[in-house]
Amino acid sequence: MATRTTTKKPAGPHTATSSEPEGAPSSTKRPTATAGAEGPEAKAPKPGADGTESVAGFKMRAESAVASNLRLPDTSKLRDIAEASFGVAVLAESIIGSDDRRQISPTTSYPWRANASLLITAADNSSWIGTGWFVSPRTLITAGHVVCIKGSGVPGRDGWVRRIVVIPGRNGAAAPYGSATSTSFRSVTGWTVSGNQEFDYGAIVLPTPLGNATGWYGYGNYPDAQLVGQTANISGYPGDKPSGTQWYDARRITAVGPRKVYYDTDTMGGQSGSAVYRIVNGGRFAVAVHAYGGSTANSGTRINAEVFNNITAWKA
Predict the structure, then answer these.
(1) pTM (two decimals)
(2) Given CB 3.0 to 4.6 Å as the disulfide criterion, which of 192, 231, 238, 310 pairs with 51?
């Protein structure tokens, strides 16, 4: 079980904190963007001219396998981890207009294999689902509310989750890259102490380098002008679809703030923690961490300079 710790004197809401006694590494200054890695063998498919992935049957709406013996549980009855902190009716992830999502199958090519289905056990042993994405061989980025529950109102549930089973490239009952269980998590005091939605991001550190087989995303701190109107790609593991299946959608970034990115890309519960990414010169670069929904836009925590530095410091 992870040991719960907090930082006694945070220097600000982006102060890194850890589920482990030694705390998270300190952040350092880095370049604006860090490239990902596609992993072994096949290259990523050529993206579309509009900045979307080449997914069969998918067309962005006009503006307005390797065998595995791992036995996976049926997660169709598990709820989105966001409900643990916010409740069922609050900030539900949303379909904006018609549902344009398309299933990804197979999931054994990049970038799909760099996304992971998360099976989360909270401190009170309740079970939940979410999504994470690799940024290095042993580190996945996700939402802060995936690794640390706030304001649930349920005795014994709040705080660092007990463990997370990470299943990269999951495709229903198939786990082509196996799985790993983590009890090592990262976030920032703006979320773990204050529960501020503008600081809702975190990380999962694995005991084994599964990312060497899957590859990982790049990520970047981009100015407003390089975000607004650009394509927001999202792929993850929604709870309204068959258990453990990965689904993709893409639409435009509609607005940005200092710490948030807004888009009308379709998502549903279970996709909390997914990468919101752009395709730049053929590379996949996350610009936000998907976290919330709304009636006219979904939103994620923006990868600004502070978030960028913490992600870089958490890589293992």
Answers:
(1) 0.82
(2) 231
